[in-house]
Specification:
- The protein has 445 residues and is an alpha+beta fold.
- Helices cover 20% and strands 30% of the residues.
- Helix 3 (130-138) crosses helix 5 (165-174).
- It starts with a strand and ends in a 28-residue tail after the last strand.
């Protein structure tokens, strides 16, 4: 039985992952596999802070002690679930009853009296078609469409406010899991509270000491990017490719700081996978709110405008597309300013108001750039003077000649640029993971 949850937090408090954590802790004997944190379209007007929805998988007849998987800790007690696809007999969970039991946890923790908080919970016997997940990455899905899917599949659901939470809840269940990463989230309810910067730095260095982690610290300035603002129950989140490494990192942290060893859980995620990126076919119109990878030539040089945002234009086939790097990306803009007209680039980003918001960029080929220089006289070798009309006259013998042109040597090969860790989107794949073999599942249970 699948459970999906979304939109229980606000921009100032709460966290849907914490509700999933409480569910996993309370129903661990019925749960199989890691809970799932699924990031959806980052461009939606109605998105929550990180636009992440959650899903879990339950059954009553699967417990096999030999396949136990430790996924976290609740008040110092291990959270263990079934780690294999093992089922004894037919599942006999009642969907309506399970919905009510699950919703009692949502009611306890969701943020009330906020117009942008519209919780939704979905319970389904079967996994939804992965096409719904793709839609949720690329566009805005009408609420009416999702409700029709839930009714047609005999699913159960509850919603509050305008009900939009059931969209993300359904999409999280539909995640295809072709590329999987992991995140360990550490909690303190109702908020993480103040943590000294030296403590943050030490925890960040522990996380960075494992090669399988990513997006945890910014190398250029040593800024630790694990800690959200202390307005939510999340103390820190460590992202990585290996759940066993994440558990080892947590153990190291707990040995140094025992207060962080009580409440944590590992999630499967689609973070850092580029799942939202589409390669558009030639001639196809680019759709607003979707995210693309496009290749083309720089046709206008990068320049900054009011607010510090950087703009330039790329010609991709018959398309001409503006590209933007916003001020919070800091030094990323400095690197982009080295681009020249006729550089051939590959850009990853989302389309908004006809422009691509750059998430990362590759320079595939540098333009040939030549510099005009004052020549030496070809006859006598003396210096020359510019006499206008791009002609130079020898000061000794009077010979007229053209200027010299010298090719400027620039960086060669494929040049990769990306924003600092603190300015990256959850879904965007860092260059560090470009050649990684992502864990994935060809099946679903």
């Amino acid at each position: 039985m699948w459970i999906g949850i979304d939109d229980t937090d606000s921009r100032n408090e709460g966290c849907t992952t914490f509700i999933a954590y409480e569910m996993a802790a309370g129903f661990s004997q019925m749960m199989r596999g890691y809970p799932r944190l699924v990031r959806l379209n980052p461009n939606l007007k109605y998105k929550t802070r990180g636009n992440g929805a959650l899903s879990l998988n339950f059954s009553e007849n699967l417990k096999d002690p030999e396949s136990n998987l430790k996924i976290g800790s609740h008040e110092g007690k291990r959270i263990e679930v079934s780690g294999e696809i093992v089922e004894y007999g037919e599942p006999d969970l009642d969907g309506r009853e399970l919905l009510e039991r699950i919703y009692s946890i949502v009611e306890k923790y969701y943020v009330r009296n906020q117009p942008d908080t519209n919780p939704g919970v979905v319970v389904s016997k079967n996994k939804f078609d992965s096409g719904i997940y793709r839609m949720a990455l690329e566009r805005e899905i009408p609420l009416e469409y999702i409700e029709s899917v839930l009714i047609d599949t005999g699913s159960f659901y509850r919603k509050e406010g305008n009900g939009r939470g059931i969209i993300g809840a359904t999409a999280s269940i539909a995640w295809d899991r072709k590329r999987i990463t992991y995140e360990l989230l550490n909690y303190k309810y109702p908020n993480g509270g103040y943590i000294d910067e030296t403590v943050k730095l030490r925890i960040g260095r522990i996380a960075e000491s494992y090669g399988s982690t990513f997006n945890n610290m910014e190398e250029t300035d040593g800024k630790v990017c694990l800690f959200p603002r202390d307005r939510t129950p999340v103390i820190y989140g460590i992202r990585g490719m290996d759940p066993e490494d994440l558990m080892s990192i947590q153990q190291e942290i707990s040995e140094v700081y025992p207060e962080f060893g009580k409440n944590f859980m590992i999630f499967e995620t689609n973070q850092g996978t580029d799942d939202h990126i589409i390669k558009p076919s030639e001639g196809k119109t680019l759709e607003e709110m979707a995210s693309y990878v496009i290749e083309g030539y720089v046709v206008s040089p990068p320049g900054r405008r009011a607010g510090g945002h950087l703009f330039f234009t790329v010609k991709s086939g018959k398309r001409t597309v503006d590209a933007i790097a916003f001020e919070p990306s800091k030094g990323f803009r400095d690197r982009l300013e080295t681009l020249r007209v006729n550089d051939f680039v590959r850009i990853f980003g989302s389309l908004s108001r006809g422009a691509i918001k750059i998430e990362k960029l590759e320079v595939l080929a540098r333009a040939l750039v030549y510099e005009r220089r004052v020549p030496k006289c070809k006859i006598c070798g003396e210096k020359t003077l510019n006499v206008g009309s791009l002609k130079y006259k020898c000061t000794e013998c009077g010979f007229l000649q053209d200027p010299d042109y010298v090719r400027i040597v620039t960086e060669s090969g494929c040049i990769r640029m990306e924003p600092p860790v603190y300015a990256r989107r959850h879904l965007s794949m860092p260059w560090k993971l470009e050649k990684v073999n992502f864990p994935g599942e060809d099946h679903e249970f």
